[in-house]
Amino acid sequence: MKRWHDKFINCRDFREGNLALLFNSRLKLYLGELCARWSGPFKVLKVYRYRAIEIGTEATRAFNVNGSRLKLHIAGEPIEEKVICVLLDASST
Questions:
Q1: What are the structural domains of the chain?
Q2: Is residue 89 scored above 60 in pLDDT?
Q3: What is the mean pLDDT of the chain?
């Protein structure tokens, strides 16, 4: 049972300089809107023992969070091209 449970746990190894997203765990009720619960990306400044991680940005000062509230942010190149899909009516063909 333990092996089955452990295969679903993602390994979260953070290193200094990585980008990470922070999970906002505060309970909020939004009327009619879906809001993302992940904020960031933040830069990992220092990794302490026992999954304590110091994160921050240029605009905010650094603060410590638990590593279980973070996930790695993989930034890619922005997509510059626009894709146009033309849908044809089946009755016209």
A1: 2-92 (2.30.30.140)
A2: yes
A3: 82
